[in-house]
Specification:
Elements lengths: L17 E6 L4 E6 H11 L5 E6 L5 E4 L6 E6 L5 E7 L11 E6 L3 E7 L4 E3 L10 E7 L4 E8 L5 E2 L10 E2 L5 E3 L9 E6 L8 E6 L46 H4 L7 H6 L3 H7 L31 E3 L5 E5 L5 E6 L5 E5 L6 E8 L13 E3 L14 E9 L2 E10 L1
Parallel strand pairs: 3-5, 4-6, 5-7, 6-8, 9-11, 17-19, 18-20, 19-21, 22-24
Antiparallel strand pairs: 1-2, 7-10, 10-11, 11-12, 13-14, 15-16, 21-23, 23-24
Length: 411
């Protein structure tokens, strides 16, 4: 048997040519064709080379890549934006493990379908921006094409799954754009959520822990700034703002930090004098004095100087005299007839009233006292009868009884 170096040389090969194979567990030497060897390499090793294809499709196109022995680079050059289109990947029977298909489009395709042609497709684009691309890689174990990269014309990339970045992200000029730091034992992280039309994107805190704050840390003496007219939501130290306003805040300067106050209120809060309080009260009706509503309740007040009550003039009609005790504590009545019904309405417990009765020019007018009146020693007095005579009634209301006295014939 000749030695291998004694065999004649050949200048070319074809798929039918054969070479010797030795398999240890078989214990002998066998032979296989070059075509069979090539098929084995295609099925088990991804080709580093690309076969390029160029297509100028129209809307609604369906392009079949077909069986290929290399990776595929498909360049789509439509004349304008397309409404739809479909690219069929190599048939599942012909796709080899690790095969990559790279698809690029020079213009936008609004609705793009990547058809697995018998295999599954994971993570594929549903549309193609102008200048964007998608790369898919075939896995023979799962019979699935997996998206390994999607890139927009602005340079942004989409990668399925997590990405490990060991440094900062730079801008096109090589400057630091986003610095990334990490904690070795981290369990919480930031997440950015985009949004559909009419909704707001979100910067979220996610992770293993249940309730986690988000912390913004300025550098040095810098502060965290929010754009003009920012609206802050939810309760907390900043309150529940609406329309860009803050409520329930502390440490805000009155002169510049609070809006929506009534006239004079900010001045009173800054300098709480009585004059400023009078200016801040909207229903104050005096001249430099603060006038409260009828019958205010004042607890434990100390008064200095004089006190006065404006007298209210009442009169009888059809022999009936009615005094409303909420009008005043001092009343005047000119008697022009005999009073057979005398009523004191709305007395307050403990209230004392003073009534000056004056006879008219005729005189001899009489009055019948209410049954609720009681008198000293049980003696019921009568009015003076002379013309223009003046008598003074003092009565204090306690419980349901008026304790009365009559001072007569003032002159």
């Amino acid at each position: 048997m000749p030695q291998i170096y004694q065999l004649p040389l050949v200048s070319s090969l074809n798929s039918g040519d054969q070479f010797a194979l030795y398999t240890p567990n078989q214990g002998d030497t066998r032979r296989a064709s070059i075509g069979l060897l090539l098929q084995y390499f295609q099925e088990n090793f991804a080709s580093p080379e690309y076969e390029s294809f160029y297509l100028s499709p129209i809307s609604g196109f369906v392009y079949q890549i077909g069986a290929q022995t290399k990776n595929v680079f498909l360049v789509l050059t439509p004349a304008g934006t397309l409404a739809s289109g479909t690219v069929e990947l190599p048939p599942i029977a012909n796709a080899f493990d690790g095969q990559v298909v790279l698809i690029v489009s020079t213009t936008a395709i609004t609705s793009l379908t990547i058809d697995g042609n018998g295999a599954s497709v994971v993570g594929a684009l549903s549309s193609m921006p102008a200048g964007g691309f998608i790369a898919v890689r075939f896995d023979s174990f799962t019979d699935t094409w997996y998206t390994v990269s999607q890139v927009t014309p602005q340079g942004g990339s989409t990668f399925p799954g997590d990405i490990s970045i060991g440094g900062d992200i730079l801008d096109p000029n090589g400057n630091e754009l986003l610095g990334l730091s990490y904690v070795a034992s981290a369990v919480n992280e930031l997440r950015v959520l985009n949004a559909a039309t009419g909704n707001s994107p979100e910067l979220q805190v996610t992770g293993d822990d249940t309730n986690i704050n988000i912390t913004f840390v300025p550098k040095g003496s810098g502060v965290v700034q929010i754009n003009t007219n920012a609206v802050l939501y939810n309760t907390g130290p900043l309150g529940t703002p609406a329309s860009g306003d803050l409520t329930n805040c502390t440490n805000l300067p009155i002169s510049t930090g609070v809006s929506g106050l009534g006239a004079g209120v900010a001045t009173f809060l800054a300098t709480p004098s009585s004059a400023n309080l009078a200016s801040a009260v909207t229903d104050e009706t005096g001249s430099g004095l603060l006038v409260f509503n009828t019958n205010p309740t004042i607890d434990g007040a100390n008064f200095t100087g004089h006190a006065e009550t404006t007298p209210v003039a009442d009169s009888s009609s059809a022999n009936t005299l009615t005094i409303d005790c909420t009008d005043s504590n001092v009343f005047t009545v000119t008697l022009t007839e005999n009073v057979t019904t005398f009523t004191l309405d709305n007395p307050a417990d403990g209230q004392t009233i003073n009534v000056l009765f004056t006879q008219d020019a005729t005189g001899s007018r009489t009055i019948t006292w209410p049954a609720s009146f009681v008198w000293s020693l049980g003696i019921v007095p009568t009015l003076s009868t002379a013309a223009s005579a003046e008598d003074f009634l003092v009565a204090t209301y306690i419980g349901t009884t008026w304790y009365a006295s009559l001072l007569k014939a003032f002159s």
